[in-house]
Amino acid sequence: LSLKFGDVGNLKGLVIRFLLTTSYYELSVQNWFSLHRLQLLYNHSIQATFNATRIYAPASYSYHCEHVSSLQRYDSLLVPSSANDLSKLWEVTFTDFQIQGFNVQEGHFAYAKDCASFLSPAILMGLVMSLVLLLVLAYTLHMLIHLKSLDRHYECKASPAYFAQVKDNDIAEEKEPLRSSANESYELRNQQFCKIYI
């Protein structure tokens, strides 16, 4: 497929040649076309040759991409064919690029397969962050479900503790007071026993 610019300003004699190929894939049970190579010709001599990457679509479709370029910032779908070639001296960028080499009907493009990836870096990062948040939520729910409350399983089996007054004359009869040097001392007479059920 050749685009001839004719006598348009300084582009006189410039030809852009697209080399397209078709292949049959048994897995998809249909023919696919791909852009194999792009050549720039000026005054009937090849000036630059670029190998095309990831530019393909079913033969009954067209291919569309916002940018098809040899520049790195546009994903470099066009790669110079060799290091010794003059292709490195050229920068090629097609904006709103659409191509269909086969099965063209009435001069109109068929339904377009777009080059936009379903798994771009932004989408992948969003999926990873969603997975992390989902794991945190699942762990939190797991901890809440298995949290045991002590309010329902805590029982006191005795009456409240009390402190009885111990006088000086009763000290010998009782257990050792808490403070023996003072006039009055107190001792825990009744202890409280509690059971915790878990």
Kindly list the characteristics that best describe this protein.
elongated; 198 residues; single chain; three-stranded mixed β-sheet; 39% strand; six-stranded antiparallel β-sheet; mainly beta; 1 helix
Task: Explain what you see.
The protein folds into two domains: 2-116, no CATH class; 117-158. Strands 1, 2, 3, 4, 5 and 7 form a six-stranded antiparallel β-sheet that branches. With 198 residues, the protein is mainly beta. It has one helix and 13 strands. The protein is elongated. A hairpin with a 2-residue loop joins strand 3 (30-42) and strand 4.
Strand content: 35-45%
Annotation field: number of helices: 1
Q: Average pLDDT value?
A: 77
Q: Uncertain runs with pLDDT below 50, 5 residues or more? A: none
Order of helices and strands: EEEEEEEEEHEEEE
Separation of the first and last Cα atoms: 81 Å
Number of extended strands = 13
**Percent range for helical residues?**
10-25%
* Overall number of domains: 2
- The SS-based structural class is mainly beta
User: How is the main sheet built?
Assistant: 6 strands, antiparallel
Radius of gyration: 43 Å
Shape, per Cα inertia axes: elongated
Family: Belongs to the vacuolar ATPase subunit S1 family.
GO molecular function: ATPase activator activity
Main location: membrane
Keywords: Membrane, Transmembrane, Transmembrane helix
